[in-house]
Specification:
Helix content: 25-40%
Largest sheet: 2 strands, antiparallel
Number of helices: 7
Distance between the termini: 53 Å
Amino acid sequence: FEEGDGTSIYSVAPLARLLAEDESPEVRAAAGFDLFPLPTHRDDQVWVNNWVLGRDCLDVDDLTWTEVTVRKAMLRAHEVLRRRMPGFEKSYILDTASQIGTRGSRRLVGEYVVTEQDVRSGTLFPDTIAIIPPFHVPTPPKAIPYRALVPVRIEGLLVAGRCFSSDPFANDLLNLIPFCMAMGEAAGTAAALAVAHGVPPRKVGVGGLQARLVQQGVWLPPGLITR
């Protein structure tokens, strides 16, 4: 994948031409493929992600259709890459996911529901436990409040990742793996503090949680920590 002149698959730009070809829209229509290779920890491997929209993650028929259709389309998409993308001529499919992954379905209702307005405006909460940088949507950095991890009706439980308390827009933007990791660290730290102090998670002191997260290397805005 690396050429002698330093050119790699990450620095060439044939994507615009590739996506303009007749075959590329066909592949995207079949299974949502963007044909955009994402870097991995290896220089000779890439991850080609895809999204299928308009299906219900709670409907077994939709899940089955997506599973079968996408697996068939993988071969077609790879063939397009081999023929049209420089560097992919001798590539092969190394692995595929063991099963379909869903972007969103059921979410718990927490003490606070993160909304589209929060995401678009960059609302900073007094109980912020994670700051999410801008990604593929031009919005300010986004804050996750501890209350969005604390279910309203269930005691002794914390949620993190795509099931956190949020509306559909906010959830779709904030349920990517790095952001789930940030929420997971906050939830795990809060659980440890709850056990240490003999209190349920909703009674954990937010200031103490924020201070502990900062000690662990989490960046929170200076002066934010609740006293």
